[in-house]
Amino acid sequence: MKEYASFLGCIIPNRYPGIEASSTRILGHFDVELVQINGASCCPAPGVFSSFHLDSWLAIAARNIALGEMTGKDIITMCNGCYGSLTEASFLLKGNKELKEKINGILSKVGCEFKGTSKIKHVIEVFSEDIGVKKIQEAMNTSLEGVRACTHYGCHFLKPAEMKKHGSSERPRLLDEIVEASGARSVDYKDKTMCCGFGGGVRARNLDVTLDFTREKLNNIISARGDCIVDQCASCHLEFDRGQVEIKKIFGQEFRVPVLYFTQLIGMGLGMGQHELGLDFHSIPAKPLLDKLNGGRR
Amino acid sequence: MTNIGIYICHCGTNIAGMIDVEELARKAAKLKDVSVVKDYRYLCSDPGQDLIKEDIRSMDLDRVVVAACSPRMHESTYRKVLSEAGINPFLLEIANIREQASWVHSEKEKTTEKAFDLVRIAVAKVKKDESLESLPADVIQRVLVIGAGIAGIQTSLDIANIGYEVVLVEKEQSIGGRMSQLGKTFPTLDCSACILTPRMVEVSTNPKIRLHTYSEVEEISGFIGNFHAKIRKKSRGLNPDLCTGCGECTARCPTKVPGEYDEGMGKRKAIYTLFPQAVPNVPVIDRANCVYITKGKCGICKKVCPAGAIDYELGDEIVEEEVGAVVVASGFDPFDPTSKEELGYGRYKNVITGLQLERLLHTAGPTKGEVIRPSDGAVPKRIAFVQCVGSRDEHANKYCSRVCCMHAIKNALLIKEHHPDAEIFIYYIDIRAFGKGYEEFYKRTQEHGIKFMRGRVAEIFEENNGNVVVRADDTLLGMVMENEVDMAVLSVGMVPRSDSAKIQKLLGIATGSDGFFMEAHAKLRPVETLVDGVFLAGTAQGPKDIPDTVAQAKGAASSALGVISHKVLELSPLISEVDERLCRGCGDCKDICEYGAIELITLDSRNAARINPALCKGCGACTVACCNGSIKLRNFTDTATFAMLEAVLGGEA
Amino acid sequence: MTEFDPRIIAFCCNWCSYVGADLAGTSRLQYPHNVRIIRTMCSGQVFPSYILKALELGADGVMIAGCHIGDCHYVSGNKKAEERFRMLLGIMKTLGLDARRIRLEWISASEGVKFANTIKEFAREIKELGPRNGGKE
Question: Which residue of C has its CA nearest to B72?
Fold first, then answer.
């Protein structure tokens, strides 16, 4: 059995507990256990905080990593924002001795030390590396045939590519492979790697700009006849789900595209129900999608 | 008694701006055995050199230290000064106080201190230097040229026309290189074949040129004046002496595969020549695709060959050649844009490279000069050129490939002349029309209504009808623009050939950070390499257009002639020598020598090592291996090094 | 007390690293003044005793720099240097010297930036280690 320290961040416990629930359940199905990191805080968001004050961002991120290191396990995150923060902070601290000493000086006041002993992984890497596409495919017991899924990777998972190292940042394959392993069909659509609109603090400051991004992506997904969005980031997830409600309010355009975290899709392939996967917390109901599957249990 | 003169160069303000030259001279004058210290504004100038000569003669100096620029710049200049003034040229040391002091530091006091240390080191060393005499070596008066594109062809013809022999080796089955793939050339629009093929024929008929096509150099040993090359002549699957080039075999061959020469735009047979004017006009059997070789069936070409030349079992042949100089003219590869995934090459049918378009535009190409788009064979009416693909790009190559702007402009104009109603867009960062007549040509294209869009292309995506949409930031309008076109042409840059690492190792020459072979000096020694007797021509050294390639090829020819027109060359005497009285004959030096320069001889009924001065390269590996210090590298001895260390660390000189 | 100003000796091979150092100069890259370069024909020409002698005479750090493996002007001089350097590291321990005071680097003729950065880094490390005579070394 493999164990990881799970860093939850803010959005998952506060808005979309289904992401954690589905991930924990399905990882358990594949013999991967998660332990909690005690006392963890906000990651904090990579682009915004670091551009205002690099050292503050680094110190908080390093503290979170240090708390994770105390478990003696590698750390996983389920949100690209958290993944971005922890990966980038770790990359910077490992590559710069002076910076590391400075940040550890700050951390010493709260009895923490960044050592760089734990790897930072996104939960999708656990699925692709530890479990493997083949095992996922074999485990599926409910047919997802006919589901046209539009994948969304999210920026902070892929870029900067030299830090994240997931192969191509322009034409990534990781999430698509997992979606196809679940039995759904990954459908290509225009500007697939475009930002959801959430990032860089834009959502907090200029909601209309943010929603313009989101709307464009949704329009492209509709053009490609997608049944749902499959994402791997809690922030993007929020953007697409809540965003559809806000777009209706601000632009008057109504979308009803269900938004799934990729473990929720795998869960559907494992025959798990709406409540088990936390789909009932979503603003946009997943019911049309579930109806489409219509008891396809093999 | 030793009588040393020290000369400090100001190099204008290059040195004197960061080093207190007077202070340095004052300190240097106090060093032991130093008779005179002088400083001068430009020591490498004639009056500067005369100053040293004067002193040597009038003050009886026997050793000289020059504190100036890197020895790589002017060591030979000052050695000559010593010679002319009547002392041995090897009794000279250079203190590199420019490249390694004044240019890299910014505190004057500390830099002056460092310069003094460098002078002390040089003084300590010059005291240990010995007079050396250059070694004469016979020169083999022939040149090996690697690569027979326009660069190699030009170099070979120039050397052969002066009257010296050339061994010309070409990897492909025909000479001609990349230039032979081109249709019309900018800015004059004369056809490439019309100007190239006469030269190719000249190569094949010149009695002074020994041509090895479909051949690769496998090994090179030796040194300037005396290189030995082993060349593999790959089997063509037929006897070239019997082949008449009638083409019957190609015509009847049933196998068709995508042709590399046509950049995959057309098909070729499994027995084929690259193009109709190939030199030599002898085909090659493609062993990977020949049905007879892979499956044992067919054999049609053998049956139809009227000359009985086909011999499937024919093996490779190794030939050996002796030469005095080598010219590397191995050319370039086009950048493979597959890695620029956002541009969709390899995924979208109607995204092609500039060289693929070149083949389509070529009257002898797969479409006989008609530009059609790959997805449906339709004539594209809207075409976008995407510049700087793989060039000027932090994620690919940082350098400019120099020809792609003009290449795109030329092809845009050709298409416009064929189809005046065609709409052509060229997406560029800057247009670089630097050559003679290039700017005028560019202007002419603008007048033909070709639209120049200033902005790097961010992404290309495909529409359902096979059209592609080019998205770019138009930096003149400050807007992101999307433009649906029938076909996009990627102006791919030049990259070092895939096998250039092999050639680099073969010759021990250096490559720059861009991967191209490095010249000995960026400005003043553009065709030499750091290996004596090895020269560069054409795009092997960096991206170039045809005129620059030919100019450099002529330069390489003249440099190679500079070596092989001598019957005897003076070799550097900076080599190892054995004190045979001390040598125990253990042979450790012989084992470590990479050049086979050491042999064990019998001397008074005991073994001793002896060094062949013509083979020794002066690396000094044997001196370290020697168990009792009986080998020394001349003027790089351990005693000299210890003296230098004492001088700089012990504070004495 | 004046700041510790380490003395560093760099043996640079004539074909790659010395040229790289020159390139740092022509590119006007700045690096600490502490280093004194001694030109050798090849990194494989550097006797281990040169390093020991330099340390004996009070050098605070010694670097050998040569062509990258596979690029040696003399085929394999740098490989020989590498073997000898490994042996030297063992000797350093026996002599009670900190092994971080000696360094082997591959710097090509085109790596002016690497040369400058290597010297910067080495000088910083040696400063951190402190003076030789100040400690037990």
Answer: C19
